[in-house]
Amino acid sequence: MDVQKDLDTFNSIFSALLQDEIDNPMSKTMDGEVLFKKLDLSLNDNPLPDDEFNEALKDLVLSTPKTASRRFFNQLFGGRNSKAMLGDLLAVVLNNSMYTYKVGGPQVCVEREIIRKICSKIGYGNNSGGTFPTGGSMANLMALIMARDHFDNDFKHRGSEHTLIAYSSTESHYSIAKNASFAGIGRDNVRYIETDQNGKMKVAILEQQIKDDLSNGLSPFFVNATAGTTVLSTYDPLDKVANICEKYKLWLHVDGALGGAAMFSEQYKYLLKGIERSDSFSFNAHKMLGTPLSCSMVFAQNKKQLYESFGNDAEYLYQADNDDLNLGKMSLQCGRRNDALKLWTLWKSVGAKGLEAIVDYQFHLSKVAHQYIEKHDDYTVFSQSPSVSICFNYKDIDPKSLCSALYDHEEMMVGYGSQGGTSFIRSVAVNTNNSEADIINFFQVLEDFVARNEDWLDKRVE
Fold first, then answer.
1. In a domain, 460, yes or no
2. What integer is the mean pLDDT of 145-166?
3. String of b and e for 413-451 (b: at least 16 CB within 10 Å)?
4. Taking a C-beta distance cutoff of 8 angstroms, is the pair 89, 10 a contact?
5. Which residues pair with 298 in a beta bridge?
């Protein structure tokens, strides 16, 4: 049977990948044109024999960046959780689309249960709801559209007679500008609010900007607050932002793609204080919870807003059952893969207590990293605990030069960011497969590399 043969091939290649992650934590780095020549990526008229196909597939897999490696600190995801991976593999095998109960069956109920539990955790009421879009950017777009339609319900029919103004911090996700364009708001109508030295939105400046826009005859309607900024992993003061939104009757969205996972932790949920006052909230389980990509969610305090902005009749599609079971009526897309199952298998297997342990452990690993930096004079730290980002500079080495060199020499994958005009290395502690020793090893690899190559590494220009 071909399926069984292909599963055997999968097991063989996956086993080889697991071993290669141990032997070679970094994949070979090479120019794109060189890679095309090295790998057999060509698509031809005739089929390959099975042995050649399997070898080409294995070469491709082993040449791909290893995001589960203990040398991967580059993005806001990493590692591999086997229970979540099991759910993702079964979602592929089942191949359900999540727009109707007729084709989704119990998988629809899985999604609804996750939405219900998370709405409860963040303090949303019985009228709340949510859905699984394709990513955090899409979740933020859906929140912006709901806010737009809430302000002017005719916008979706005839466009707007108002100049709508949205607000977000200078440290917020780059999707805010793109989404303003997609939603017909306009990139120039996003006001970026200054942050303090820790990356938190300055609420007094937010209020003054709203006042200025109102006095100029404009229409403020939406504020995006961030729970876990992309660079410093900082949490905006949600309660204070909510006060402003209530005062001026603006929609409050909380982008918790990274830091929203704190809702599962008794120790760290205070970082989300005030989230229950928001109108919408987005969250990525593929970040701090470690599910496979992509596992993004958006929630609305009133699920009516989801239906009003994204619902559309289609007799050929919605032929039975009530709207609560036809999830396509609150989704931006029609065909939609089952991204809920991977989170359900993880949550079901470890319980809410297990999710709490995952979150707490990531904050712990970050604390270990910060303590190491603080004990060594050659480091300058820019981030603060609690945060899953560890932002620092080492000696007087230019961070961009050092990160590029570590990657080019296949030592480690780590990126850089900036705050207030200062650039620094940004490492992220979101791989719960890592141990405290792996975190210390990160710094030792960096230090050893600099010691061997300091003569040619670019120095920072102060």
1. no
2. 92
3. bbbbbebeeebbbbbbbbbbebeeebbeebbebbeebbe
4. no
5. 131, 282
Report percent pLDDT > 70 for the chain: 97
CB neighbours (10 Å) of residue 29?
13
One domain, residues 178 and 327: yes
So what's the pLDDT on residue 462? 46
What letter represents residue 163's amino acid? T
For 415, the token pair is 């990126």
Starting at the earlier edge strand, list the strands of the sheet with 72-73. Answer: 72-73, 413-419, 422-428, 389-394, 379-381
CA separation (Å) from 93 to 30, 96, 147, 286?
A: 34, 9, 37, 20
Question: What is residue 317's predicted lDDT score, i.e. its pLDDT?
Answer: 66
Whether residues 182 and 262 share a domain: the answer is yes
180 and 269 assigned to the same domain? yes
Same domain, 15 and 123: no
Asked if residues 448 and 412 have their Cβ atoms less than 8 Å apart, the reply is no
Range of the domain at 364: 351-453
Tell me the pLDDT tens digit for each residue of 250-290. 999 999 999 999 999 999 999 999 999 999 999 999 999 99
Residue 241 lies in a domain: yes
Q: For residue 117, give both structure tokens.
A: 């539990």
pLDDT digits (tens, 9 = 90+) for 432-457: 899 999 999 999 999 999 999 988 89
Q: For residue 212, what are the contacts with CB-CB under 8 A and spacing of at least 6? A: none
Q: Are strands 190-193 and 389-394 parallel, antiparallel or unpaired?
A: unpaired
Verdict on whether the full-model pTM lies above 0.85: yes
Three-state secondary structure call for residue 48: coil
DSSP label at residue 316 = T
Determine the Cα–Cα distance for residues 345 and 38; give it in Å rounded to an integer: 38
Q: Indicate the residue among 345, 380, 411 that finishes a domain.
A: 345
- Our count of domains for the chain comes to 3
Q: Tokens at residue 91, please?
A: 């979602």
Report residue 455 as tokens: 């003569």
